[in-house]
Design brief:
This protein is an alpha/beta fold. The protein contains nine helices and twelve strands. It has a five-stranded mixed beta sheet, with helices on both faces. It has a three-stranded parallel beta sheet with strand order 6-3-7, sandwiched between helices. The relative contact order is 0.22.
C-alpha cells in the first residue's frame, strides 16, 4: 500500500508534501533540472458535455449551487500543484474537471492543510477531498472513496547505472521527507540488509521531490524512491536523464473522499466510469505521463487492505 495518505493511526494521514517539477531538457550550467518548463501538458481529445442521466443524480444542494467545492493540499506534482501563474493544475485536477463537465458542474478548489481535508468533508465544508488519498479499509470506516487510479512505489536510476530495489544494500537512496518511502519502505529494506549481514541503505532525505531528482541526476545519490505517478512524471520531464529502476510494487487505489454514505459517491463513480469507457481518462493520464496506473473500473470503497 502506498500513497500520500498512508495511515499513521486512526484518522491521521501521513502527508506527502513534495512536488516533482522537472522541466524538459533544461540542464543549465549546474546540470540541474528546471522548475518551470514543460510542467503542464496540453491535453487533447477530452471535449465533454453534461450527461443528463448522470447529472440528474447530483444531490440537490450541489446541483442548485452549480459547483463542487473541493478541498486540496498542494504541492504534489503531477497530481495537484500550482503552475507558474499560481493556478491549481495537475492530473487529478484535469480528471476531476472532466468529471465536473459530465455532471454539469464547475469545480471550485479550496486549498487546505492536508490533515484538515477529511474533517472538513465530514463537516460538509467541502463536497469532497482530492489530494492523492489512498483508499484503505481503515479510512473507509469514517469516509467513502471513489477510486480513480492505482499507485505504487517506483524507484528511479540513472541510465546505464542499474539498481535493484530489492538489493540496494549500501547504496544511497533519495526520498522526500515524511513520505511512506521515508518512514516505512526504505527503512524496512535497510533493516533487511542489516539482518542479512549487509551494509544498510543510506537514506538521503530531501524537502521536495525535485531536489531528490536533481540529486540523482547529479550523482549525489544512487537511486530515488517515490510514489509511482510522481516518479513517472519526473522521468517524463527529465529528458532521458533518469529512468525506472525495477517494477512498480505495493500498489493501492487513489480515491476522491466524500462523507460516509453521501449520495455524491455514486454520481462521481458514474462520471468517472463514463470517462474510462469513453477514453478521455486514458488521454488525460497519458498526457501527464501516468498511464501506468490506469484502472478499468471505478469503485466506491475499493480498498483491499
Amino acid at each position: 500500500m502506498v500513497g500520500r495518505t498512508r495511515s499513521l493511526g486512526p484518522g491521521l494521514l501521513a502527508h506527502v508534501v513534495g512536488v516533482v517539477v522537472i522541466g524538459a531538457l533544461a540542464l543549465g550550467s549546474a546540470g540541474c533540472v528546471s522548475n518551470n518548463e514543460g510542467l503542464v501538458p496540453v491535453v487533447s481529445g477530452v471535449e465533454l458535455q453534461e450527461v443528463a442521466s448522470i447529472a440528474a443524480q447530483v444531490p440537490s444542494e450541489i446541483a442548485a449551487s452549480g459547483r463542487l467545492v473541493v478541498g486540496v493540499n498542494i504541492p504534489y506534482a503531477p497530481n495537484e500543484f500550482k503552475d507558474e501563474n499560481g493556478k491549481i493544475v495537475g492530473f487529478d485536477v484535469d480528471l476531476l474537471n472532466a468529471v465536473g463537465q459530465v455532471l454539469g458542474l464547475s469545480v471550485d478548489y479550496k486549498q487546505a492543510d492536508f490533515d484538515k481535508i477529511i474533517p472538513a468533508v465530514q463537516a460538509g465544508t467541502f463536497n469532497l477531498g482530492m489530494s492523492s488519498f489512498t483508499d484503505t479499509l481503515e479510512r473507509e470506516k469514517s469516509v467513502d472513496f471513489v477510486t480513480y487510479y492505482s499507485a505504487g512505489v517506483q524507484w528511479a536510476q540513472r541510465p546505464g547505472d542499474p539498481i535493484d530495489p530489492n538489493n540496494a544494500c549500501g547504496l544511497r537512496v533519495g526520498v522526500q521527507t515524511t513520505t511512506i518511502e521515508d518512514i516505512d519502505e526504505v527503512p524496512a529494506k535497510s533493516a533487511a540488509c542489516v539482518a542479512a549481514g549487509k551494509p544498510p541503505i543510506e537514506k538521503i532525505k530531501y524537502d521536495s521531490q525535485d531536489d531528490a531528482a536533481n540529486a540523482l541526476i547529479l550523482g549525489r545519490i544512487d537511486a530515488l524512491s517515490a510514489d509511482s505517478p510522481v516518479t513517472a512524471y519526473a522521468i517524463k520531464r527529465s529528458g532521458g536523464r533518469i529512468e525506472p529502476a525495477g517494477e512498480v510494487f505495493d500498489s493501492a487505489p487513489y480515491g476522491w473522499v466524500v462523507a460516509k454514505g453521501s449520495p455524491l459517491a455514486p454520481v462521481l463513480q458514474q462520471g468517472m466510469q463514463y470517462l474510462i469507457d469513453g477514453g478521455q481518462y486514458a488521454r488525460i493520464a497519458d498526457a501527464w505521463g501516468v498511464g501506468a496506473g490506469l484502472i478499468e473500473t471505478s469503485l466506491i470503497n475499493g480498498a483491499t487492505t
